[in-house]
Design brief:
about 15% helix, globular
Amino acid sequence: MKRLPTLTLVAGLLAGVPLLHAAGEKAAAAPSHPIVGTWTWALFGGSCTETLQYRADKTVLGTSGQEVFESRYDIAATPDAQGFYKLVETVVRQNDKKDCSGATLDEPGEKTTRFIQFSPKQDQLLVCEAATLKACFGPLKRVP
């Protein structure tokens, strides 16, 4: 059995340490926002479903009825004093089909500002027109 010199073995092990350390730092430096994930909401007694897939790369893919769209989003890192996260979405592309409510989405480049509030377990969210519970829809449920 041929033995590797101890110095070569130690040098090989130490060469991987900076890579492992850098990978650990990157993972620790980029915690996921609670909005990242897939959310769904059934409307009209379950006859129409809206699904939103918020990705960590700040894009969202959505379906609602026959509508399919992709947007870019920016969301506050922390909620305001009332627990709302400001969310701004900009339409990138959409298929000009009607959503669950019969409306069509804005044209590419159009921005929409909404306010999101999560349940304490962050497994549900409400989408509101303003930072108040007076004009909201949902709750959307997180898809495991």
